[in-house]
Design a protein that fits this description.
Layout lengths: L13 E5 L6 H15 L2 E7 L3 H4 L7 H23 L5 E6 L3 H8 L5 E5 L15 H7 L4 E4 L10 E5 L4 H9 L1 H4 L4 E7 L6 H12 L4 E6 L6 H12 L3 E5 L5 H7 L2 H8 L4 E4 L1
Parallel strand pairs: 1-2, 1-4, 2-3, 4-5, 6-7, 6-9, 7-8, 9-10
Antiparallel strand pairs: 5-10
Helix pairs in contact: 1-3, 9-11
């Protein structure tokens, strides 16, 4: 992070991070610790797992043994969290035997930003404690930072904003403001055949008034995939973060026909900040 914002710059007061038993949870935790330290924020670790019999509508079948298994998993996730935070004081842990997606969405009321792991089809994931980042972004009402495997630091030397003049994009830019004002460069990317996009220029100017080093970029490369184009631009500028609105169309339509959010969640090799 190359710029030093003024004391009145936007900030995050609480960072929530989801823990599971995947091999990437400690790296994700270290990224969240670094993010909390950057903003002097409280760190909140969260984990949950549902009893299989309850999920299958068979409550009572083998409940005691299953409860012990789930409790051991949650304790293992807690220990992983403790190992990551070390002696950090401003931190807490929340865990419950329940559906992990719903529990994280519920607990997000206490956070300014929620950190979760990527869950692409080729990633190694935890089937028991894991959460769907798309579901969390759609439902939690907070910005969600989606972290690829083996990523343990957030280095927004440059940030790319996937801009479309929609409610979701406006929300994402505002939610990312604490990070954008600390980035070395912010590129507001819009797609179109015109040489100018006044909405992207307006957003870039708005960011500049908040102290961000921002510029608009209208892309007209003609790539068949918007996500591929955004990630290509991110690679060109050396971006360590991509900011995007999530699910601008109905989620059902996106999952049936595809969509930029779905493609980014499947292919992005850098962290994504998503807001809905």
């Amino acid at each position: 992070m190359t710029t030093r914002p003024a004391a009145s710059s936007p900030s995050y007061a609480s960072v929530m991070v989801h823990f599971d038993l995947s091999p990437y949870a400690p790296q994700r935790g270290r990224l969240a610790v670094s993010l909390a330290d950057t903003f002097g924020a409280r760190l909140i670790g969260v984990a949950a797992e549902q009893i299989i019999a309850e999920a299958a509508g068979q409550a009572g079948y083998g409940a005691d043994e299953e409860t012990r298994r789930v409790s051991r998993n949650l304790e293992a996730a807690h220990q992983s969290y403790i190992d990551v935070i070390d002696s950090r004081n401003d931190a807490e842990w929340r865990a419950r035997i329940t559906a992990p997606d719903r529990y994280l969405v519920e607990q997000a009321r206490s956070a300014d930003i929620v950190v979760v792991g990527r869950r692409a089809s080729y990633d190694q994931v935890d089937p028991w404690l894991g959460v769907s980042p798309g579901y969390v972004a759609l439902e939690c009402g907070r910005p969600v930072l989606v972290v690829p495997p083996e990523t343990e630091s957030l280095s927004p030397r440059a940030v790319v904003i996937a801009w479309k003049d929609t409610r979701e994009s406006r929300r994402a830019v505002y939610d990312a403001l604490p990070l954008l004002t600390r980035a070395g460069e912010v590129v507001v990317v819009s797609a179109g055949s015109a040489f100018r996009d006044e909405s992207a220029e307006d957003v870039s100017a708005w960011l500049a008034r908040h102290g961000a080093n921002s510029r608009p970029l209208v892309s007209a490369s003609g790539m068949s995939s918007v996500a591929e184009e955004l990630l290509d631009i991110a690679a060109d500028v050396g971006a360590g973060l991509l900011v995007s609105g999530a699910y601008g169309h109905s989620r059902t339509r996106e999952w049936i026909f595809g969509g930029v959010t779905r493609d980014l969640l499947e292919t992005a090799s850098i962290p994504l900040l998503l807001s809905h």
